[in-house]
Amino acid sequence: MPLEPEDLAQVVEQINSGLNVLQEHYGRERIDGARIRFPRRFIREAYRLRQTLPDIGTDVQRRNAALTLMTLDVLRWVIIRTDLRGAVLSMVVKQALFLLGSVCEWLTAASVEGKKFKVRTSRLVERGTISNVLKVDLDWLWDRRNDAHFLLVGELEHERYTVDDVNRAQAAFVALRDALRQ
Question: Which CATH number belongs to the domain containing residue 68 in this structure?
C-alpha cells in the first residue's frame, strides 16, 4: 500500500540524509561497512526471467539473457528511484537501451537467419511473427543500441536519451519475446 504523501516525504528525507552522510565520510571509497542494501525483490530472479524467455538458442544464451535482464532491473531502479537528470540520466538510459537491444539481437538471431538485425526483423514480419509496427520499434532500438559505438555517433549525446525511450524499448522487447513464445 502506498505511503501517505507526508510519510513518503519523511522516508525519502531520511534516506537522502543517510546517503549524504555516507558520501561525506567515505566519498568514492569502497568500504564494506558503508555499503547500503539494495532493495530486495526489485531485481527479478534469473530462473524466473528464464521462464519468460522463448525456448530458443542455447541454455547458456538464455541464462546470460536472464542475467542481462537482472542488470536492466538495476538500471530501471536507478531511473525510477533517483533524481538523476540531464546527461547522467541520458547515459543510464543509453545503457538500458544497449542491453535491451543486445537481448533483442539474440532473440532475432536465434529465431531467423540473417547476419543483419534489420534483415532478421524483416523476415520475422514476412513470417507473420511480428507486426510492421513492432519492426519499426525494434529497428529503432537497434539504431539506439548501436550508439554504443562512439565512432558511429555524430552528435553530442547530452540529454539525447529519455525515460520514454527506455519505456519504448522495454515494450518492444516484451512484444518480441512474447511473439517468439507463441
Answer: 1.20.120
